[in-house]
Amino acid sequence: MGVEIDLEVLTDKGRIDGVLALEDKIYLIEFKYGKAGTKMDSLTKQAIKQIQTKNYGERFLNESRPRLLLGVGFVEKEIGYKLITDS
Questions:
Q1: Can you say whether residue 40 is alpha, beta or left, with left for phi > 0 and alpha for psi between -120 and 50 degrees?
Q2: By the 8 A CB rule, do 57 and 16 touch?
Q3: Which domains does the chain have, with CATH numbers?
Q4: What is the pTM of this model?
């Protein structure tokens, strides 16, 4: 299928929750869980910030494929996400 998925990918600054590598792009995925009443936007922004702060994309600098940062939030039965391009 041309898809590789890795979970809990170790870096020198932590673990990336998920890496989804497609033929034309790589998704760096961070999951965040919140209690009832937590704002979804806050969770997804926190997930993206963690990917950036811990420089998870550094592991893929030699890749020619673009890297996309995907923050996924879970609050009770609600699921939200934020997707940005790594620069």
A1: alpha
A2: no
A3: 4-85 (3.40.1350.10)
A4: 0.91
